[in-house]
Amino acid sequence: MPERSMSHPERAPAPRNASIPAKATAPTRPPFLEFVALIALLIGMTAFSIDNLLPAFGAIREDFALANANDVQVMVYAYLLGIGSAQFLYGPISDVVGRRPILFAGLAIYAVGTLIALFTRDFNVLIAARVIQGVGAASGRVLAIAIVRDRFEGREMARIMSLAMMVFLTVPILAPALGSLILAFGSWHLIFIAMLTLAVALLVWFGLRMPETLHPEYRIPFSFRAIGKAVVLTLTTRRAAGYAVAIGLMMGSLMAYVGSASQVFQTDVYKLGNLFPVAFAAVAGIMAVASFTNAALVRRIGMRRLSHGGICGFITVGALMVAASLAYGGKPPLILFCGLVGAGQFLFALTVPNFNSMAMEPLGAVAGTASSFIGGFTTLMASVLGYFVGRAFDGTVLPLSLGYMVLGAIALVFVLWAEKGRLFGHNQ
Predict the structure, then answer these.
(1) 3 state DSSP class of 362
(2) How confident is the model over 312-346, as pLDDT tens digits?
(3) Span 354-370, pLDDT tens digits
(4) What are phi and psi of 28, to 5 degrees?
(5) What number of helices (H) and strands (E) belong to the chain?
(6) Cα separation of 198 and 374, whole Å?
(7) Considering the entire predicted model, what is its pTM?
(8) In Å, how far from its chain's centre is CA 315?
(9) Any idea where the Major facilitator superfamily (MFS) profile domain is (predicted)?
(10) What is the SS3 assignment for 288?
């Protein structure tokens, strides 16, 4: 798509100040597809730093002599803790000084955490390094969404986010296989070298190709009062608050799956060993297809109808997972379990991106702070919920299945609250 489509007056977001034409905020580069790819990789760094490490869980457990197999999951949740806590800062600060310098600082912090992980011989220090990595990676998570919101709104924003998610979701397809390939040539330390390489590549690419997207007229003076007002606006906007909680609950089920995936597929339940990346990639591939489907349908069907249908289906699949777990003593056939998890992840990908767009839609005037607060809140919520569901792993898939069903059902309650009891409302 040519670059002019990005600044077309019918597609550009309405200016926050009527005296400033919308086209004044539209950078002249990069072109559309490169823009989507860069946004996707900024978000994708988060998943890459989790998923390519999953095949190394066994090696890390042995290297650090961990007695409890569930302890290695803490590397996932510590990373998410860093992401969630730091997101509260990046958005407000970027609303003051702009997106570019804050992203550069975040990538530098990520690199420091990666270097610490490379050289430590203490598992507690490794966990601390993962927290630092998460603090740095949060910059990409927050600023990618804020940059999209700087330039798009409504269904166009949902379309861009869906396309970015489609590219982003190829990361879980490839990352575990890449991690296994790296392990074939050396220790798990090489995986952290790959993470460092990605951070440097993103720093160079963004620095050369992405101009500042926050118009000077939209920058706000730094003050706790202004940040507080933005947070209060986010909390008191019913749709934003309701969908934010729903996102956190849905993400909790995903993080529980990611944290326990190695034990479910690789070591304890199905004992796939080196075939673990194949099973993980198959489920991730289904999510990528769903994101493409969402991008293709959202402008015709609308965010509400797609996402509300998605969450209802997600709860149904969760109930089927519980039924299958009980019927087969906690270990249903691999094909059946993968099919059900894949169906759940397909519906997840029709739901969460649209929930995020609907939460952000009424908050355009405080996009950076709102993205920061919602992202931080949902990530912290997901990490805590994922930790408890993941730590409940007992050698069967029943805890994970219950997590899908229960968290999905609670998320639906908050969606109903956000929509004042109505589902499948008018198209957006």
Answers:
(1) helix
(2) 999 999 999 999 999 999 999 999 999 999 999 89
(3) 898 888 878 777 766 78
(4) -85, -10
(5) 15, 0
(6) 26
(7) 0.74
(8) 20
(9) 32-420
(10) helix
